[in-house]
Design goal:
alpha/beta; six-stranded parallel beta sheet; 11 strands; elongated; Rossmann fold; binds zinc ion; 30% helix
């Protein structure tokens, strides 16, 4: 039985580097890997999956909110690797789940568990629900030596809870943080503390809504 994997980790946990290493290992054995990522992540150029360590690979497919997977396209591949899977729709994750059953190809998704308000992304939520294996890619808190599990958003160096959930602008920076440091930084740096974050969600929390917001900007 082919499995669906969700490998999640906070920002800076080298998820993409891990993905590229898996792709390399398959290719070393003359096996074919298919790479995909959501189209809205265009930080590094349209169709490129690039790690912060500098390695990159061309994506075979950019996924939109309404993409319907053509299973014929995936025939003959040995593994499907998905980067930034948190930005995918629940419907698309359902399609990936179906690929593992119908085509018997394993699908490995990499992504963030939660956004900067510590709320599940739509894609991550569905992956938590459907995956055979949920594995953590670990990283260290930027402020202490504990494990970083949250993504602290900084705008001009200040912790922030503002802005849409999907926010890939160059002016924002994200740091991995443990719970203690995440809460402390937000309490000291914003008028809202971590406990208020959930109530501050607003209309922008759905990734589909945020995607529309993003599309409106371009
Ligand atoms: Zn910490």
């Amino acid at each position: 039985m082919a499995k669906l994997y969700f490998r999640f980790g906070a920002v800076g946990s080298a998820k993409t580097l891990n993905l590229l290493a898996v792709a390399h290992a398959y290719r070393q054995q003359d096996k074919q890997v298919f790479l995909m990522k959501p189209r809205l992540d265009t930080r590094f150029g349209e169709a490129v999956i690039r790690s912060r360590a500098g390695l990159s690979q061309k994506a075979d497919l950019l996924v939109d909110a309404d993409t319907v997977l053509d299973l014929d396209l995936l025939e003959g591949y040995h593994c499907i690797l998905v980067d930034e899977a948190q930005f995918l729709s629940a419907d698309f994750i359902d399609q990936l789940r179906r690929v593992t059953r119908v085509l018997q190809i394993p699908v490995i998704c990499y992504g963030l568990r939660t956004d900067f308000r510590a709320q599940l992304f739509e894609g991550s939520k569905r992956l938590m629900e459907l995956s055979d294996a949920i594995e953590e890619v670990k990283t260290t808190c930027a402020f202490c030596n504990r494990k970083g599990i949250f993504n602290l958003k900084l705008v001009e160096g200040r912790p922030s809870l503002a802005g849409p959930t999907v926010d890939l602008g160059a002016e924002e920076k994200y740091l991995p943080a443990c719970h203690d440091c995440f809460a402390k930084e937000l309490e000291e740096g914003t008028e809202l503390g971590f406990c208020q974050a959930a109530q501050h969600k607003g209309r922008e929390t759905s990734s589909r809504g945020a995607l529309r917001d993003l599309e409106d900007q371009f």
